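Open question from group meeting: does this chain pack into something compact, or does most of it stay loose? Before anyone orders reagents, we agreed to write out a predicted structure and look at it together. Recording both the input and the output here so the notebook holds the full record.
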Amino acid sequence: MKARVLLIITLWTLVGSAGCDQRSSRAVSAPEQPAPDAVVEAVVDVATTRIRRGAITQPVSAPGSLVARRESQIGTEVTGRLQHVFVSEGDRVEAGAPLFQIAPESYEMALRQAEAGLDVAQADRRQIESDLARARTLRRQDVVAQQDLDRLTTALAVSQARERQAHESVALARHNVERTTVRAPYAGSVAKRLADEGTTALVQPQTIVIVLQETSELEAHAAIPESQLALVRNGDRARLHIEGLAAPIATTVSTVNDTIDPATRTYLVKMPVPNPDRRLKAGVFAHVEILPRAKLDVLLVSPEAVRAEDGVTRLLIVRDGRAVAVPIEVGLTSEDAVEVLAGAEEGEEVIVGEAAQTIAPGMRVRAMRAEESPAA
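Structure tokens returned:
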């Protein structure tokens, strides 16, 4: 009987120990549950850079074209029949080369008449000089009256004036003969030939026969918007991008017009384009890129940091571990920098890259310099 009671007590003890072990195991393995109202705030790694001081240049781009540095519409200086045209379109001529000729016969005849008139005037003057010399001798002998001597003196003055007039007539007639052949005022290329032999050429209105261009040096003309007026100055560097040329042409701004075109609200900028081999042609389109002088010691930020929303330009600046949206005023813009005029300070950490456009202001962030940020 005692043995049976002892067995029952032993079994009961074992069952109780097993239950305690199971409850203890459950107590140890169960994780600690957070309180229902606790919130875990995520921290986002973001690439950043600092606002710095430096220099910036904002290129000014505009469409343009190449034009001849000089272009002349050359017409006749005397009226007559166009007898010869010595050049054709595309010809290159040197300064002084003949371009065309008006029939010279009538002008050569006028020259001969003027020369004959000069001969008569000179003969009259010599005759009067001889008569006056003889009259002076006779006057000393009291053979000729003083009145006759005065008359001859006056006649000599008149004959001398007529002789001068005859000289001028000869000079004018000779000049007209020379003007029948029209010559190139400078070395250039014949852009247009507007008349052929046989045309009756007039002076008023002038008949234009040849259009001559100086092509050894061209000019690039670009129309710059009024809004960029303050950026461009004489002496600024420029690059001309021309289709068909592997490399841009380097030049400088030579002229900035003071007058703005009221129709287009643009102003004209000119740049010299050397063309010694004449491979460039007037009228060719050019994309003009002007590089104004750099602004020095200004606040700069990466373009990747700039965020534009609702007409306001902002930066996301890291302050106390959070992204803070700060409105800024911007100035010049280049490929790798934006000028900050107001709203941010030198050395502030700004978010760049995709995060600058996607991170919500107020989020907790961990700043990592752009060059140290993990690869995406």
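Observations to bring back to the group:
The longest strand covers residues 208-225.
The longest helix spans residues 105-140.
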